[in-house]
Amino acid sequence: MTGPIRVALVDDQALFRAGIRMLVDSQPDLEVVAEASNGQEALGVVRATRPDVVLMDIRMPVMDGLAATAELLRDDDPPRIVMLTTFDLDEAAARAIREGASGFLLKDADPEFLLAAVRTVHAGSAVIAASATRDLFAHFSDAAPRPVPAAYGTLTDREREIFALAARGLSNAEIAGREFLSEATVKTHISRILTKLALRDRVQLVVFAFEHGLA
Q1: Which of 29, 121, 140, 201 could disulfide-link 80, Cβ–Cβ 3.0 to 4.6 Å?
Q2: 91 — pLDDT class (breaks 50, 70, 90)
Q3: Phi, psi of 108 (to 5 degrees)
């Protein structure tokens, strides 16, 4: 039997950390193993304790969450990192996701949603829906598209159709209904697309589509 999901909390507000710690530690399958009050501290405690999931505030003194996230994601076998923000459409969150964070959570999110988010990220899925990512990137994506990588050319016609729908933020169920396929078939197609494009999850797929003018 595997142990609980190990969580690190990084936030400069001690009261906020205490509240999240109580919430997380109240769950039998979750455990807070580290805390830090800024990004610089986070580098040390995360590398020392090797949590599965890090809840990382974006705005902190000394070193902010963006810089700390970029550093940690360069490590071998980095943790999943979820950015904590007070803004729904946050340019900093968009940047963090582009660089490999697993999504973002609003700091006033419902407690059950936060707990579900930790479990979802640990299971390998992104914590925010592809549709929310799409909204975020549509809002902040004003850079010129990059050249489309050769890997995109390896997608079949059917995979490109499904890629386009997933890039618009549609769920597997929505794609299945539109394309007259089973959800299991859509899931298989999405899995193949992610493998061919070397992407981690659907959120990264949306980012890829926006960066290369395919959205």
Answers
A1: 121
A2: confident
A3: -100, 25
CA–CA gap between residue 40 and residue 47 (Å, rounded) = 11
Neighbours of 130 (CB within 10 A): 22
State the DSSP H helix or E strand holding residue 163, giving kind and residue range, or none if neither. helix 157-167
Whether 193 has a pLDDT exceeding 90, the answer reads: yes
pLDDT in tens, 38-60: 999 999 999 999 999 999 998 88
Contact partners, residue 41, CB within 8 Å, separation at least 6: 10, 62
3-state DSSP of 85-97: ECCCCCHHHHHHH
Sheet with 53-57: strands ordered across: 30-36, 5-10, 53-57, 80-85, 104-106
C-alpha 36, offset from chain centre: 20
Beta-bridge partners for 105:
84
Mean pLDDT score of the chain: 85
